[in-house]
Input
Amino acid sequence: MRVLVATAVPAERDAVAAAFPGGTTEVRLPAATLLRTAGGYDLLAAGVGPALAAAGTATALTAAALEGRPYTLVVSAGIAGGFRPAAPVGSLVVADEIIAADLGAETADGFVPVTELGFGTVSHRPPDPLVRATAEATGARPGAVLTVSTVTGSAARAADLSARHPHALAEAMEGFGVAEAAAAHGVPVMEIRAVSNPVGPRDRDAWRIPAALAALTGAFGKLAPVLESWNPHDHR
Ligand SMILES: O=C(O)c1cccc(C(=O)CC[C@H]2O[C@@H](n3cnc4c(=O)[nH]cnc43)[C@H](O)[C@@H]2O)c1
Output
């Protein structure tokens, strides 16, 4: 089992690192720096947004493949906005689907995803058994996690996203980029998020970042044994 965990910012990466005893060592790649835990997890703070997430994740995946020690799983992790009432602040969400929610075109009839324009994909599905095992071990609620390039700042946009994706529990800004890079390398992906704020009208003062980071640390403490016993060939 070789796991790459991609976060957006160093504070999220360090919250993940805090779950692993024994400290970390720095591994410098040409365009990215990893923190390697004693247990062999590689932690990457790739930057905010899907483009940096995809670039950083692809760099780490390529470096590992060239070294002859490819990753067996990529995890997108961090804090997120939670859709009310299903994903309250402080709760955990594990993605059963990772959706690019604003990758498309605005038309007179509303938003049209790129797939309906004949391009690419807008969704990746993490392995079901891994999602279920993660939910059970960590208490994370399974549901869709949206990837957006613009943080939602109004009730109208929150309602529009919820109407288009009724099973969405959270929005963040990196999961789809991480998933695209993982898919290009044929490596399974999952996303786990700790909710720091509600999705809706912008109120930065209401973001509960330290509590969400603490929840992320707690989640990885419980997730590590799940990942270590997970069999990538189990498709049940
Ligand atoms: O200021 C800090 O101390 C701090 C510590 C950790 C993380 C941050 C961030 O600002 C992380 C940005 C990151 O968080 C995700 N996020 C969180 N809430 C939302 C949301 O409502 N909508 C979209 N994304 C959200 C996102 O993945 C960002 O990359 C600051």
